[in-house]
Amino acid sequence: MFDMMKMMGKVKEMQAKMKEAQEKLEFIEETGEAGAGMVKAVVNGKKSVISIDIDESLLSKDDKEMLQDLTVAAINNAMEKADARAKEEIKKSTDGLMPNIPGMDLGNLF
């Protein structure tokens, strides 16, 4: 039979685990590269850019447009990696807390 108190306890436990997982996202760092590593971007799991490193050989007026494109590509690459890692962490933190309900993926909440 369905135990409502047990279910409520699981929901509270899941909320605590989700909060803990969200707090950890700040410490996840992923690096994305573009232009064979000439432009690197580091972002965290909260999708904030931490740093950008640009090879000195790209720092000329003639290469401004290429440099902009490479910077955007490196940031997007790092964001994709950080997003995937954040989803893994949240899934890992909440694994086993809720029943496996088809179509309910808690990793997609963030």
Description:
- There is one protein chain.
- Strand 2 (39-44) and strand 3 (49-54) form a beta hairpin.
- The protein is of the alpha+beta class and 110 residues long.
- It has a domain at 27-97: Nucleoid-associated protein YbaB-like domain (Ybab, Chain: A, 2-Layer Sandwich), CATH 3.30.1310.
- The longest helix is centred in the C-terminal third of the chain and has 31 residues, at 64-94.
- The protein has 2 helices and 3 strands; from the N terminus they run αβββα.
- Helix 1 runs antiparallel to helix 2.
The biggest sheet, with number of strands, parallel, antiparallel or mixed sense and barrel status, is: 3 strands, antiparallel
Enumerate the strands of the largest sheet in spatial order, edge to edge or round the barrel: 1-2-3
What is Rg? 20 Å
**What overall geometry do the principal axes of the alpha carbons give?**
rod-shaped
Please give the alpha-carbon distance between the first and last residues. Answer: 33 Å
Protein name: Nucleoid-associated protein AWW68_17600
Subunit structure: Homodimer.
Function: Binds to DNA and alters its conformation. May be involved in regulation of gene expression, nucleoid organization and DNA protection.
Keywords: Coiled coil, Cytoplasm, DNA-binding
